[in-house]
Write a structure and sequence with these properties.
The chain is an all-beta fold and 126 residues long. It contains no helices and eleven strands. A hairpin with a 4-residue loop joins β7 and β8 (78-83).
Length: 126
């Protein structure tokens, strides 16, 4: 069984940084496309960042481009989201996700992901 467990969320001031971690068990991250999504209160879940299975293609939502970085540690079977220069509009529950798709480009549609974590809350105070 595949499990994804996020951590690293919390309360931070505007302009601050957080690093989210997602520990994966039951599947190797080297054989998976991966992504981060977020859901703000009363809104739909939206794509934040994605990396294709080989790691050769990375894609970011316009709202986070230049501020967020997705990465993975193959030895730890963990994926990360480094978030810098945080803004109040980044406040949301953040979810990590894996896909079995082996595409040349990162996956950005939620329906193409197979496994999801339980989410971690990020709150950015103004």
């Amino acid at each position: 069984q595949v499990h994804l467990v996020e951590s690293g969320g919390g309360l931070v001031q505007t302009g601050g940084s957080l690093r989210l971690s997602c520990e994966v068990s039951g599947r190797t991250v080297t054989n998976s496309a991966m992504g981060w999504f977020r859901q703000a209160p009363g809104k739909e879940r939206t794509f934040v960042a994605g990396m294709n299975w080989s790691g050769g293609n990375i894609y970011y939502a316009d709202a986070v481009k230049g501020r967020f970085t997705i990465s993975r540690d193959n030895a730890k079977n963990t994926i990360y989201l480094q978030m810098n220069d945080l803004k109040p509009e980044d406040t949301a529950i953040y979810y990590c996700t894996l896909s079995s798709l082996r595409t040349t480009v990162a996956v950005s549609r939620a329906r193409e992901y197979d496994y999801w974590g339980q989410g971690t809350q990020v709150t950015v105070a103004s």
